[in-house]
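Q: What would this complex look like in 3D?
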Amino acid sequence: MNNERGMKTKTTNKLFYCTYCMFIFVLLINNPSVCAGEAEKLTGKKFAQLARGGILYDNWLTELQVKVDNTHPSYPSDGKQKGETTWRCKECHGWDYKGKAGAYSTGSHYTGIVGIRAYSNQKPEKIIKVLKDDTHAFGNMISDDAYEALALFVAYGQIDVDLYIDRTTKKSTGDPASGWRIYLTTCVKCHGDDGKEINFRDEAKPEYIGTIANKNPWETLHKIRWGHPESQMISLVFLDLEAQLHVLSFCQTVLGK
Ligand code: HEC
Ligand code: HEC
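A: Here is my prediction, written as C-alpha coordinates for the whole assembly.
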Protein backbone atom coordinates (compact mmCIF):
# COMPACT_ATOMS: atom_id res chain seq x y z
CA MET A 1 0.00 0.00 0.00
CA ASN A 2 2.56 2.48 1.24
CA ASN A 3 4.92 1.54 -1.54
CA GLU A 4 2.30 2.04 -4.17
CA ARG A 5 1.42 5.42 -2.81
CA GLY A 6 5.09 6.36 -2.81
CA MET A 7 5.41 5.47 -6.50
CA LYS A 8 2.33 7.47 -7.33
CA THR A 9 3.71 10.53 -5.55
CA LYS A 10 6.93 10.18 -7.51
CA THR A 11 5.11 10.19 -10.84
CA THR A 12 2.92 13.03 -9.70
CA ASN A 13 6.03 14.91 -8.66
CA LYS A 14 7.58 14.32 -12.06
CA LEU A 15 4.44 15.47 -13.79
CA PHE A 16 4.27 18.51 -11.57
CA TYR A 17 7.93 19.29 -12.27
CA CYS A 18 7.44 19.00 -16.04
CA THR A 19 4.35 21.20 -15.98
CA TYR A 20 6.20 23.68 -13.81
CA CYS A 21 9.13 23.81 -16.27
CA MET A 22 6.76 24.27 -19.19
CA PHE A 23 5.04 27.06 -17.31
CA ILE A 24 8.32 28.87 -16.60
CA PHE A 25 9.36 28.39 -20.22
CA VAL A 26 6.12 29.88 -21.54
CA LEU A 27 6.48 32.69 -19.03
CA LEU A 28 10.01 33.38 -20.24
CA ILE A 29 9.19 33.49 -23.91
CA ASN A 30 6.15 35.65 -23.30
CA ASN A 31 7.65 38.01 -20.77
CA PRO A 32 8.62 41.24 -22.50
CA SER A 33 10.95 42.22 -19.67
CA VAL A 34 13.00 39.22 -20.77
CA CYS A 35 12.50 39.67 -24.53
CA ALA A 36 12.79 43.42 -24.29
CA GLY A 37 16.46 43.05 -23.45
CA GLU A 38 16.98 45.22 -26.52
CA ALA A 39 15.21 48.16 -24.84
CA GLU A 40 17.44 47.82 -21.79
CA LYS A 41 20.53 47.90 -23.98
CA LEU A 42 19.55 51.31 -25.36
CA THR A 43 21.71 54.19 -24.19
CA GLY A 44 20.08 57.01 -22.22
CA LYS A 45 19.55 59.06 -25.34
CA LYS A 46 18.07 56.18 -27.34
CA PHE A 47 15.86 55.26 -24.39
CA ALA A 48 14.52 58.82 -24.36
CA GLN A 49 13.87 58.43 -28.10
CA LEU A 50 11.94 55.23 -27.40
CA ALA A 51 9.81 57.06 -24.79
CA ARG A 52 9.17 59.86 -27.26
CA GLY A 53 8.03 57.21 -29.72
CA GLY A 54 5.28 56.20 -27.28
CA ILE A 55 4.03 59.78 -27.19
CA LEU A 56 4.22 60.08 -30.98
CA TYR A 57 2.23 56.86 -31.40
CA ASP A 58 -0.48 58.49 -29.29
CA ASN A 59 -0.53 61.75 -31.23
CA TRP A 60 2.38 62.73 -33.44
CA LEU A 61 0.42 65.65 -34.90
CA THR A 62 0.03 67.65 -31.70
CA GLU A 63 3.50 66.64 -30.55
CA LEU A 64 5.17 67.76 -33.81
CA GLN A 65 2.70 70.63 -34.30
CA VAL A 66 1.60 69.39 -37.69
CA LYS A 67 -1.77 70.51 -39.00
CA VAL A 68 -3.84 68.51 -41.48
CA ASP A 69 -7.46 69.02 -42.39
CA ASN A 70 -8.12 66.09 -44.68
CA THR A 71 -8.88 62.50 -43.74
CA HIS A 72 -5.94 60.10 -44.15
CA PRO A 73 -5.99 58.58 -47.69
CA SER A 74 -5.67 55.04 -46.24
CA TYR A 75 -8.49 55.53 -43.74
CA PRO A 76 -11.42 53.40 -44.97
CA SER A 77 -14.24 55.42 -46.51
CA ASP A 78 -16.83 53.67 -44.35
CA GLY A 79 -14.87 54.45 -41.17
CA LYS A 80 -16.63 56.62 -38.55
CA GLN A 81 -13.80 59.10 -37.86
CA LYS A 82 -12.63 61.94 -40.05
CA GLY A 83 -9.99 64.64 -40.31
CA GLU A 84 -6.91 64.98 -38.14
CA THR A 85 -7.58 62.08 -35.78
CA THR A 86 -7.45 59.60 -38.70
CA TRP A 87 -3.71 60.36 -38.98
CA ARG A 88 -2.93 59.13 -35.45
CA CYS A 89 -1.24 55.71 -35.24
CA LYS A 90 -3.63 54.65 -32.49
CA GLU A 91 -6.67 55.40 -34.66
CA CYS A 92 -5.74 52.71 -37.20
CA HIS A 93 -3.72 50.32 -35.03
CA GLY A 94 -5.38 50.66 -31.60
CA TRP A 95 -4.37 51.40 -28.02
CA ASP A 96 -3.83 47.67 -27.65
CA TYR A 97 -1.62 47.58 -30.79
CA LYS A 98 -3.88 44.85 -32.22
CA GLY A 99 -5.96 46.80 -34.74
CA LYS A 100 -8.89 44.79 -36.04
CA ALA A 101 -7.95 41.87 -33.77
CA GLY A 102 -8.31 44.00 -30.63
CA ALA A 103 -10.66 46.53 -29.06
CA TYR A 104 -11.20 48.21 -32.42
CA SER A 105 -12.61 45.02 -33.94
CA THR A 106 -16.02 46.71 -33.70
CA GLY A 107 -17.48 50.11 -32.86
CA SER A 108 -16.82 53.68 -33.89
CA HIS A 109 -13.06 53.12 -34.24
CA TYR A 110 -13.29 50.04 -36.48
CA THR A 111 -11.11 50.26 -39.60
CA GLY A 112 -10.35 46.63 -40.46
CA ILE A 113 -6.62 47.45 -40.36
CA VAL A 114 -4.10 45.09 -38.77
CA GLY A 115 -2.20 45.84 -35.57
CA ILE A 116 1.53 46.44 -35.18
CA ARG A 117 2.30 43.33 -33.11
CA ALA A 118 4.05 41.54 -35.99
CA TYR A 119 6.71 44.25 -35.96
CA SER A 120 7.59 43.87 -32.27
CA ASN A 121 11.32 43.17 -31.93
CA GLN A 122 11.91 43.81 -35.64
CA LYS A 123 14.79 45.98 -36.79
CA PRO A 124 13.96 49.72 -36.48
CA GLU A 125 15.34 50.31 -40.03
CA LYS A 126 12.80 47.83 -41.38
CA ILE A 127 9.97 49.60 -39.48
CA ILE A 128 11.03 53.02 -40.78
CA LYS A 129 10.61 51.64 -44.33
CA VAL A 130 7.01 50.67 -43.50
CA LEU A 131 6.32 54.08 -41.97
CA LYS A 132 7.70 55.80 -45.07
CA ASP A 133 5.62 53.75 -47.51
CA ASP A 134 2.81 55.12 -49.70
CA THR A 135 0.12 53.57 -47.50
CA HIS A 136 1.19 55.77 -44.61
CA ALA A 137 1.71 58.86 -46.77
CA PHE A 138 3.43 60.80 -43.98
CA GLY A 139 6.25 62.11 -46.20
CA ASN A 140 8.25 64.82 -44.52
CA MET A 141 5.49 65.77 -42.10
CA ILE A 142 7.42 63.43 -39.78
CA SER A 143 11.11 64.24 -39.27
CA ASP A 144 13.82 61.55 -39.45
CA ASP A 145 14.31 61.90 -35.73
CA ALA A 146 10.62 61.25 -35.09
CA TYR A 147 10.59 58.31 -37.54
CA GLU A 148 13.39 56.77 -35.51
CA ALA A 149 11.51 57.33 -32.24
CA LEU A 150 8.35 55.73 -33.66
CA ALA A 151 10.33 52.75 -34.97
CA LEU A 152 11.99 52.23 -31.58
CA PHE A 153 8.57 52.26 -29.96
CA VAL A 154 7.15 49.73 -32.42
CA ALA A 155 10.21 47.49 -32.01
CA TYR A 156 10.82 47.64 -28.27
CA GLY A 157 8.10 49.73 -26.61
CA GLN A 158 4.88 47.91 -27.45
CA ILE A 159 3.73 44.94 -25.38
CA ASP A 160 1.19 42.15 -25.69
CA VAL A 161 -1.48 43.70 -23.47
CA ASP A 162 -3.56 40.50 -23.38
CA LEU A 163 -0.99 39.00 -21.03
CA TYR A 164 -1.72 41.69 -18.43
CA ILE A 165 -5.24 42.96 -19.02
CA ASP A 166 -8.17 40.55 -19.12
CA ARG A 167 -10.03 41.07 -22.41
CA THR A 168 -13.44 40.39 -20.89
CA THR A 169 -13.30 41.96 -17.43
CA LYS A 170 -10.77 44.62 -18.54
CA LYS A 171 -9.02 44.12 -15.19
CA SER A 172 -5.29 44.60 -14.85
CA THR A 173 -3.20 41.85 -13.25
CA GLY A 174 -1.56 44.45 -10.98
CA ASP A 175 -2.00 44.91 -7.25
CA PRO A 176 -3.80 48.13 -6.23
CA ALA A 177 -2.09 48.24 -2.84
CA SER A 178 1.31 48.48 -4.52
CA GLY A 179 0.05 51.01 -7.06
CA TRP A 180 -1.07 53.27 -4.25
CA ARG A 181 2.50 54.17 -3.29
CA ILE A 182 3.39 55.21 -6.83
CA TYR A 183 0.18 57.09 -7.56
CA LEU A 184 0.20 59.04 -4.32
CA THR A 185 3.77 60.25 -4.82
CA THR A 186 3.64 61.11 -8.53
CA CYS A 187 0.28 61.29 -10.33
CA VAL A 188 -1.34 62.93 -7.28
CA LYS A 189 0.46 66.20 -8.02
CA CYS A 190 -1.73 66.83 -11.05
CA HIS A 191 -4.68 64.46 -10.77
CA GLY A 192 -5.34 64.80 -7.02
CA ASP A 193 -5.63 62.07 -4.40
CA ASP A 194 -9.10 61.07 -5.59
CA GLY A 195 -8.11 61.31 -9.27
CA LYS A 196 -10.65 64.06 -9.85
CA GLU A 197 -8.44 67.13 -10.12
CA ILE A 198 -8.46 66.94 -13.94
CA ASN A 199 -11.70 66.32 -15.80
CA PHE A 200 -10.92 65.06 -19.32
CA ARG A 201 -14.38 65.96 -20.61
CA ASP A 202 -16.93 68.45 -19.32
CA GLU A 203 -19.08 69.14 -16.29
CA ALA A 204 -22.11 67.41 -17.80
CA LYS A 205 -20.26 64.16 -18.53
CA PRO A 206 -17.12 64.19 -16.40
CA GLU A 207 -14.38 61.71 -17.16
CA TYR A 208 -11.58 61.10 -14.68
CA ILE A 209 -8.65 58.69 -14.44
CA GLY A 210 -10.87 56.14 -12.71
CA THR A 211 -13.44 56.37 -15.51
CA ILE A 212 -10.89 55.95 -18.31
CA ALA A 213 -8.98 53.19 -16.50
CA ASN A 214 -12.09 51.00 -16.45
CA LYS A 215 -13.48 52.01 -19.83
CA ASN A 216 -10.24 51.81 -21.76
CA PRO A 217 -7.49 50.14 -19.71
CA TRP A 218 -5.29 49.78 -22.81
CA GLU A 219 -5.25 53.52 -23.38
CA THR A 220 -4.64 54.14 -19.68
CA LEU A 221 -1.71 51.71 -19.62
CA HIS A 222 -0.27 53.41 -22.69
CA LYS A 223 -0.54 56.80 -20.91
CA ILE A 224 0.97 55.40 -17.70
CA ARG A 225 3.92 54.00 -19.64
CA TRP A 226 4.56 56.95 -21.96
CA GLY A 227 2.76 60.02 -20.61
CA HIS A 228 0.24 62.26 -22.34
CA PRO A 229 1.13 64.34 -25.44
CA GLU A 230 1.34 68.09 -25.05
CA SER A 231 1.35 68.00 -21.26
CA GLN A 232 3.84 67.85 -18.42
CA MET A 233 2.62 64.36 -17.58
CA ILE A 234 5.47 62.02 -16.71
CA SER A 235 6.24 58.61 -18.21
CA LEU A 236 6.63 55.61 -15.91
CA VAL A 237 8.48 53.52 -18.46
CA PHE A 238 11.63 53.56 -16.32
CA LEU A 239 9.79 51.33 -13.83
CA ASP A 240 9.25 47.69 -14.64
CA LEU A 241 5.99 46.65 -16.26
CA GLU A 242 4.74 45.04 -13.06
CA ALA A 243 4.87 48.38 -11.24
CA GLN A 244 3.06 50.10 -14.12
CA LEU A 245 0.31 47.47 -13.85
CA HIS A 246 0.03 48.14 -10.11
CA VAL A 247 -0.71 51.79 -10.95
CA LEU A 248 -3.34 50.72 -13.51
CA SER A 249 -5.00 48.47 -10.92
CA PHE A 250 -5.00 51.28 -8.39
CA CYS A 251 -6.67 53.60 -10.93
CA GLN A 252 -9.28 50.93 -11.76
CA THR A 253 -10.21 50.02 -8.21
CA VAL A 254 -9.52 52.86 -5.78
CA LEU A 255 -10.08 55.76 -8.22
CA GLY A 256 -12.72 53.89 -10.19
CA LYS A 257 -15.22 54.08 -7.35
C1 HEC B 1 -5.06 55.73 -41.81
C2 HEC B 1 -4.65 54.52 -41.15
C3 HEC B 1 -3.24 54.35 -40.66
C4 HEC B 1 -2.52 55.18 -39.83
C5 HEC B 1 -2.92 56.54 -39.28
C6 HEC B 1 -1.28 54.50 -39.55
N1 HEC B 1 -1.24 53.31 -40.19
FE1 HEC B 1 0.18 51.89 -40.02
N2 HEC B 1 -0.76 50.75 -41.42
C7 HEC B 1 -1.94 51.07 -42.06
C8 HEC B 1 -2.22 50.09 -43.07
C9 HEC B 1 -3.43 50.09 -43.99
C10 HEC B 1 -1.16 49.16 -43.03
C11 HEC B 1 -0.94 47.97 -43.94
C12 HEC B 1 -1.50 46.75 -43.38
C13 HEC B 1 -1.42 45.62 -44.36
O1 HEC B 1 -0.37 45.45 -44.97
O2 HEC B 1 -2.42 44.94 -44.49
C14 HEC B 1 -0.28 49.59 -41.96
C15 HEC B 1 0.84 48.90 -41.54
C16 HEC B 1 1.63 49.25 -40.46
C17 HEC B 1 2.68 48.42 -39.88
C18 HEC B 1 3.01 47.01 -40.35
C19 HEC B 1 2.02 46.04 -39.76
C20 HEC B 1 2.02 44.68 -40.43
O3 HEC B 1 1.85 43.68 -39.72
O4 HEC B 1 2.14 44.63 -41.65
C21 HEC B 1 3.25 49.14 -38.86
C22 HEC B 1 4.40 48.70 -37.97
C23 HEC B 1 2.57 50.41 -38.80
N3 HEC B 1 1.59 50.43 -39.77
C24 HEC B 1 2.86 51.41 -37.90
C25 HEC B 1 2.22 52.66 -37.87
C26 HEC B 1 2.63 53.77 -37.04
C27 HEC B 1 3.78 53.77 -36.06
C28 HEC B 1 1.77 54.80 -37.32
C29 HEC B 1 1.79 56.22 -36.80
C30 HEC B 1 2.98 57.01 -37.08
C31 HEC B 1 0.80 54.29 -38.28
N4 HEC B 1 1.12 53.01 -38.63
C32 HEC B 1 -0.29 55.02 -38.73
C33 HEC B 1 -2.75 52.14 -41.76
C34 HEC B 1 -2.41 53.18 -40.90
C1 HEC C 1 2.56 67.09 -14.32
C2 HEC C 1 1.16 66.77 -14.28
C3 HEC C 1 0.73 65.33 -14.47
C4 HEC C 1 1.21 64.21 -13.84
C5 HEC C 1 2.32 64.09 -12.81
C6 HEC C 1 0.40 63.11 -14.34
N1 HEC C 1 -0.52 63.56 -15.24
FE1 HEC C 1 -1.90 62.45 -16.22
N2 HEC C 1 -2.42 64.06 -17.33
C7 HEC C 1 -1.99 65.35 -17.11
C8 HEC C 1 -2.63 66.24 -18.09
C9 HEC C 1 -2.44 67.74 -18.17
C10 HEC C 1 -3.45 65.42 -18.90
C11 HEC C 1 -4.34 65.87 -20.07
C12 HEC C 1 -5.63 66.36 -19.54
C13 HEC C 1 -6.64 66.65 -20.63
O1 HEC C 1 -6.49 66.20 -21.75
O2 HEC C 1 -7.60 67.35 -20.31
C14 HEC C 1 -3.29 64.05 -18.39
C15 HEC C 1 -3.94 62.97 -18.93
C16 HEC C 1 -3.96 61.71 -18.36
C17 HEC C 1 -4.70 60.58 -18.85
C18 HEC C 1 -5.45 60.55 -20.18
C19 HEC C 1 -6.85 60.86 -20.17
C20 HEC C 1 -7.39 60.85 -21.59
O3 HEC C 1 -8.03 59.89 -21.96
O4 HEC C 1 -7.15 61.79 -22.33
C21 HEC C 1 -4.50 59.54 -17.99
C22 HEC C 1 -5.09 58.14 -18.07
C23 HEC C 1 -3.60 60.01 -16.96
N3 HEC C 1 -3.29 61.33 -17.20
C24 HEC C 1 -3.12 59.25 -15.92
C25 HEC C 1 -2.04 59.62 -15.12
C26 HEC C 1 -1.37 58.74 -14.19
C27 HEC C 1 -1.79 57.32 -13.86
C28 HEC C 1 -0.32 59.45 -13.66
C29 HEC C 1 0.77 58.96 -12.72
C30 HEC C 1 1.60 57.91 -13.27
C31 HEC C 1 -0.35 60.77 -14.24
N4 HEC C 1 -1.40 60.84 -15.11
C32 HEC C 1 0.55 61.79 -13.93
C33 HEC C 1 -1.09 65.75 -16.18
C34 HEC C 1 -0.35 64.91 -15.35
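A: To summarize the key features: The two ends are 57 Å apart (CA to CA). The pocket of heme C (ligand 2) is lined by residues 186-187, 189-191, 198, 200, 209, 212, 219-220, 223-224, 228, 231-234, 236, 247, 251 (CB under 6 Å).
Q: Very helpful, thank you.
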